[in-house]
Amino acid sequence: MSPPSTTDVLVVGAGPAGIAAATAAAEHGRKVIVLDDNRKPGGQIWRDSSVIASPARSASGSRKQRAIDRLQRSGATLLSGHTVFSASASGQLETLRELATGSFAERFRFEQLILATGARERFLPFPGWTLPGVFGVGGLQALVRAGYSVAGKRIIVAGTGPLLLAVAAHLSHDGANVVAVIEQAALSSLIPFAASLWRQPSKLLQGAQYRASLSSASYRTAAWVAEAIPATDGRSLSAVRITDGKRTWTEPCDLLACGYHLVPNTELAELIGCTLQRGFVQVDEQQRTSVPNVFCAGEPTGIAGLEAALLQGEIAGRACAGVATASLRSRANKEQAFARGLARAFALRPELRQLPQPGTIVCRCEDVAFANLQHPSGWADIKLQTRCGMGPCQARVCGPAVEFLLGSKPSSVRQPLYPVPLHALTATTEHAPEPFKVEPESIHKVEETA
């Protein structure tokens, strides 16, 4: 393995929080390297800068471009295609980089580390959720952005959280027939949350724009998908069964996008030894974690959206450079209040725990059915008896589901965080770090399967 690259500040994640953090630190004289496992910067939020055709669309796109341009001018080095699989609080981190010529591990040494690792979708199992044609909400959106055509397809978007309306609007804009948006939260929870946003009119306006673009789709609250029904060939989706707890009805559709808000990516923070509080990385007013010289910004500290991510990233970057952050705190605190309101409004209802049947697969990697999880006590026992959480996803999908269904939370995080080929650990490379580069947008067509 080649000698490690060294830097003052190492930022993991090139989403909005990571971009803001790296820019702030570099503009104040720190040498900064940004690592991201994607091909282009922007993370999940800025994977595509648009959702619906409106003035807000171009504004969002230009905001993303301005942030990336500013990052480029700051002098920070962006290294794409680097997946972090090992790290320690002693100041060293290892990544896996895959090129056309092969894969190899690279090491980085740092004085300060900023974790901006974002969040992922939460999936909850129900009968039929593994059928072809059933996607995660964000997963289907990502496929469409990569070229998958939904034109003319009847789609139901279900689950919980503000992402439902945003994705439904995006799908409609791309030609899909969005039949319905099904929100499990009750209207009595959503109204107080909406009312609390009077000081943040931009968020209310954005939600109104999304809803206006879905005038032909029904929007139901206090309802949820009880079952995905296969077509006669068993290889595609024909309909979904929806319930509000009192009555049940069936809606024909071609695709179902279903997701239950977001869970933070905290594995790297846990591996380093950062303290978690209520499932999120605990930070102080300068985004410092419990580990010296390690900072965290964005969704790992609380699901709060774009504005919070940008503010926290800038605070973390300034703090690394020893620059005052007090002027940003009041705005950051307001966004954290928004995050708390979001969590209350979209809290998962207990009825969702009753959805899996004995034969419903919970761990897709290891084909573990719900019935096999009923008797083990605790996460360690579940792993020993069923191998749940021991597949390639390392409990990233089934872990949050099992925690919600049974109250058993994955108890440890181990390295490597992702599978690493053995040869990559011994390979050497003479490739120098690439200069900052943002590749032009390109569309990769995704073949539809029967």
Polypeptide structure, described:
The protein is of the alpha/beta class. The chain folds into three domains: about 5-120 and about 265-325, FAD/NAD(P)-binding domain (3-Layer(bba) Sandwich), CATH 3.50.50; about 125-260, 3-Layer(bba) Sandwich (FAD/NAD(P)-binding domain); about 355-405. Helix content is about 30%, strand content about 25%. Strands 1, 2, 3, 4, 5, 6 and 19 form a seven-stranded mixed beta sheet that branches. A five-stranded parallel beta sheet has the order 8-15-9-10-11. Helix 8 (about 305-320) runs antiparallel to helix 9 (about 325-345).
Annotation keywords:
450 residues; alpha/beta; FAD/NAD(P)-binding domain; five-stranded parallel sheet; 12 helices; 21 strands; disordered C terminus
Q: What's the layout of helices and strands?
A:
Layout: E1 5-12, H1 16-27, E2 32-35, H2 55-74, E3 77-79, E4 82-88, E5 92-99, E6 102-115, E7 119-121, E8 134-135, H3 137-145, E9 154-160, H4 163-173, E10 177-183, H5 187-195, H6 201-212, E11 218-220, E12 224-230, E13 237-243, E14 248-252, E15 255-260, E16 262-264, H7 267-272, E17 276-277, E18 280-281, E19 294-296, H8 306-320, H9 326-345, E20 361-363, E21 368-369, H10 378-386, H11 398-406, H12 422-426
Topology-level CATH name of the largest domain: FAD/NAD(P)-binding domain
**Rg, Å, rounded:** 22 Å
Strand content: 15-25%
User: In the CATH classification, which architecture of the largest domain applies?
Assistant: 3-Layer(bba) Sandwich
Amino-to-carboxy terminus distance: 44 Å
Mean pLDDT over the residues:
89
Specify the structural class: alpha/beta
Number of domains: 3
Helix content: 25-40%
Low-confidence stretches: 49-58, 439-450
The total of beta strands comes to: 21
Shape: globular
| Helix segment tally | 12
**Main beta sheet strand tally, sense and closure:** 7 strands, mixed
The CATH superfamily of the largest domain appears as FAD/NAD(P)-binding domain
Highest-level CATH class of the largest domain: Alpha Beta
